[in-house]
From TrEMBL:
Protein name (Swiss-Prot/TrEMBL): UDP-2,3-diacylglucosamine hydrolase
Any GO molecular function: manganese ion binding
Family: Belongs to the LpxH family.
Pathway field: Glycolipid biosynthesis; lipid IV(A) biosynthesis; lipid IV(A) from (3R)-3-hydroxytetradecanoyl-[acyl-carrier-protein] and UDP-N-acetyl-alpha-D-glucosamine: step 4/6
Native source organism of the sequence: Undibacterium luofuense
Length: 262
């Protein structure tokens, strides 16, 4: 007698960093939308899906149109799409959401899976040890700053974003690694929401962290253009309440496990 396999309730993905400069990564993501994503009831896009986003009036760019069309195809296929802002695409707005048929989420969202509470967030707000970034984040998330930025011509905004991107890459290259989340910050977030599971991206350190009171899953970034071997993937919430990680090829994998005793 065969046992039915659990179905896919939701998929979680982040840090694809889409741009026209990464055709192989873009192809992999579009294949994901046309394949594995279609088996899910819901798809959560959890920030930094674009390398940068300078405003919804840039949606008519040919590359952006192709991404929107693929997302809309998922919506039309009956998949519920949710979008959470990251540190690079925080200017995605209502026009983009309408064009793609998706729902914008706040920076922290609670979900229920059976008797468990799952909290999802991009993860950059929990990098509290990076004081320079936290100051920058406060500035660009300010509505007045955003209005002033969006009032500038589109081409100027693109140039500013490219300059900021180059500066960010130089800093990361010098430091070799992105800032990690602060343990107290993630513990406080889990406690505030009485979460059993916390899922985030941003740090590019895919792993499963086990704490006394909750588990923390870190999503991978995607790179099929420059990495020594293609990387990326997603996390699936199954109908039996389990969570399964997949690599960019759609193969089930085991995440490295870190146990925290404190």
């Amino acid at each position: 007698m065969s046992t039915a396999q659990p179905s896919v309730v939701a998929l979680f993905v982040s840090d694809v960093h889409l741009s026209a400069d990464i055709p192989a990564t873009t192809h992999a993501f579009l294949q994901f939308l046309q394949g594995p994503a279609r088996a899910a009831q819901a798809l959560y896009l959890m920030g930094d899906m674009f390398e940068y986003w300078v405003g919804d009036d840039d949606i008519n760019d040919h590359y952006h149109q192709s991404i929107c069309a693929a997302l809309l195809d998922c919506t039309n296929a009956g998949i519920r799409l949710y979008w959470m802002h990251g540190n690079r695409d925080f200017l995605v707005g209502a026009d983009f959401a309408d064009r793609c048929g998706l729902q914008l989420l706040p920076e922290t969202q609670s979900l229920r899976a059976g008797d468990k509470t799952i909290v999802i967030t991009h993860g950059d707000a929990e990098c509290t040890g990076d004081l320079a970034y936290m100051q920058f984040r406060k500035q660009v998330r300010n509505s007045q700053w955003q209005q002033q930025f969006l009032s500038q011509p589109l081409e100027k905004r693109r140039d500013i974003a490219k300059q900021m991107r180059a500066q960010s890459q130089q800093k990361q290259s010098a430091a070799m690694v992105l800032s990690d989340v602060d343990e107290d910050a993630v513990s406080s977030l889990a406690k505030a929401h009485q979460a059993h599971i916390l899922i985030h991206g941003h740090t590019h350190r895919p792993a499963l962290h086990q704490y006394a009171d909750f588990s923390r899953y870190v999503l991978p970034d995607w790179d099929c253009d420059h990495a020594a071997s293609p990387r990326g993937g997603w996390l699936a919430l199954l109908s039996d309440g389990g969570l399964q990680a997949y690599d960019v090829h759609g193969e089930a994998i085991q995440l490295p496990v870190n146990r925290h005793t404190a």
